[in-house]
């Protein structure tokens, strides 16, 4: 394919992909993570501390949650202050940082004097990546973290020391979004070390450290280092990764991050195709890019506590940079023509992304909008009472009740006890926590300890059932 044909094709495909992406935002359903972080943001805005009533009784999270995505939640609290606790206001957080990422790539392409086609390739890679499309409208820290990390990388390519310092600040901010952001600090520092720029390495690490230290501000203020260590060590999401054997298992499974499913596999295959096809050009790539990328991957391999495909997000901007840099090396040739393996990899990337986005849109519009459905159940639920609910019940309902617990809380506490994961244990736990009603969502959040449809639940009576949802109310409230 010639350069003109490639640019013409991309100029048609990219607007279509962007349209599909924005269609996937319309009526986008709330995820458990949306609600999980929204509740933490709610209490940060209301009480000035990050905590959770959903997880009352778990590691002291109802008092203060020290192991959290602090800068991300602070930014979310600003969004919530401006627009309220609306689902879409919070989802907008990730979209804003995706827009910033596009702006950063536009600036990088101009700085590197790459041609217009490179920007179209960036847009193509972003908007036909199912993982990006999903996470760009979800209230999670990954998009914010990877954008800050990439911004840090761009700044430390300049000679000016004040920009190196600012790059250090941004890498520290990435850590404040999520502790995994430390990989951007490690990669930036070793990039300078391997290039022999020790003064810049010192400037970078000092400003990164001074920024990162704010992670411990709330811990220091509450004199809660022991509590932070306890929460970190016993975090339900990662406690199984501690210990030598478990850590080795995670390290051995690390490559699966890039090949977990087709949505992660697509960009990995495209990058491998580029690197193999143009392997003779690899030594012409910026040395800083190669060193930074290698250290980024190795550092995450050493620190990660689980091999989740979601973590590929942290590397996507650098993977894309490799692709457009290699493309820039070959497009200058008068005889430019993309090889068949590269064209096939692009085609595969497009098909995987297109199908994934269509499936996402279908999933969104094939079921009722959850907040609306929950609102319709209000007449079957005791007002201003304590409930056990799905996390997504947060949106539009949280302030209507005395307090709410979530099923994940029970599930996590179950894992730390000798109780069976059954309906009886759930009912006993609910009564022990003075729960007045329980809302089961069989369609979106079913767990193995849920009662069978219309099954008797000790201490509770069925108030509503429609096949998808069931409401049980404490007997004395009937």
UniProtKB/TrEMBL annotation:
The chain crosses the membrane at residues 6-26, 88-105, 117-137, 162-194, 201-220, 257-278, 285-303, 309-330, 342-361. Keywords: Membrane, Transmembrane, Transmembrane helix. It comes from the Bacteria. This is Dolichyl-phosphate-mannose-protein mannosyltransferase. The keyword Transmembrane applies.
């Amino acid at each position: 394919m010639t350069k003109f044909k490639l640019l013409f094709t991309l100029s048609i495909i990219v607007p279509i992909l962007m349209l599909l992406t924005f269609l996937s935002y319309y009526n986008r359903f709330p995820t458990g993570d949306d609600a999980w972080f929204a509740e933490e943001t709610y209490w940060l805005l209301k009480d000035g501390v990050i905590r959770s009533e959903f997880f009352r009784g778990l590691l002291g999270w109802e008092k203060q949650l020290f192991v959290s995505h602090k800068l991300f939640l602070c930014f979310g609290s600003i969004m919530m202050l401006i627009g309220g606790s609306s689902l879409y206001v919070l989802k907008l957080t990730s979209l804003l940082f995706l827009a910033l990422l596009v702006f950063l790539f536009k600036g990088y392409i101009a700085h590197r004097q790459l041609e217009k086609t490179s920007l179209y390739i960036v847009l193509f890679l972003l908007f036909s990546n199912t993982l990006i499309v999903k996470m760009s409208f979800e209230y999670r820290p990954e998009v914010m973290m990877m954008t800050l990390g990439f911004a840090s990388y761009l700044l430390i390519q300049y000679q000016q020391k004040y920009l190196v310092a600012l790059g250090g600040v941004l890498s520290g901010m990435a850590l404040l979004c999520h502790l995994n952001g430390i990989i951007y600090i490690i990669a930036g520092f070793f990039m300078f070390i391997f290039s022999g720029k020790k003064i810049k390495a010192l400037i970078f690490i000092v400003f990164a450290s001074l920024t990162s230290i704010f992670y411990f501000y709330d811990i220091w203020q509450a004199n809660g280092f022991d509590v932070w260590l306890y929460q970190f060590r016993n975090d339900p999401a990662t406690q199984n990764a501690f210990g030598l054997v478990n850590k080795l298992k995670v390290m051995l499974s690390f490559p699966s991050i890039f090949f977990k499913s087709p949505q992660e596999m697509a960009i990995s295959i495209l990058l491998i195709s580029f690197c193999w096809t143009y392997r003779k050009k690899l030594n012409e790539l910026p040395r800083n890019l190669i060193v930074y990328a290698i250290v980024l991957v190795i550092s995450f391999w050493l620190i990660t506590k689980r091999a989740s495909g979601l973590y590929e997000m942290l590397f996507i901007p650098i993977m894309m940079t490799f692709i457009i840099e290699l493309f820039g090396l070959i497009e200058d040739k008068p005889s430019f023509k993309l090889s068949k393996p590269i064209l096939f990899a692009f085609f595969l990337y497009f098909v995987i992304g297109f199908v994934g986005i269509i499936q996402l849109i279908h999933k969104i519009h094939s079921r009722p909008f959850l907040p609306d459905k929950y609102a319709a159940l209000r007449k079957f639920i005791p007002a201003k009472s304590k409930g056990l609910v799905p996390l997504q019940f947060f949106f539009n309902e949280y302030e209507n009740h005395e307090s709410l617990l979530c099923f994940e809380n029970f599930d996590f506490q179950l894992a730390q006890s000798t109780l069976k994961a059954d309906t009886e244990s759930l009912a006993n736990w609910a009564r022990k926590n003075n729960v007045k009603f329980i809302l089961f969502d069989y369609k979106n959040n079913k767990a193995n300890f849920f009662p069978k449809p219309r099954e008797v639940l000790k201490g509770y009576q069925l108030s509503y059932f429609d096949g998808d949802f069931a409401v049980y109310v404490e007997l004395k409230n009937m």
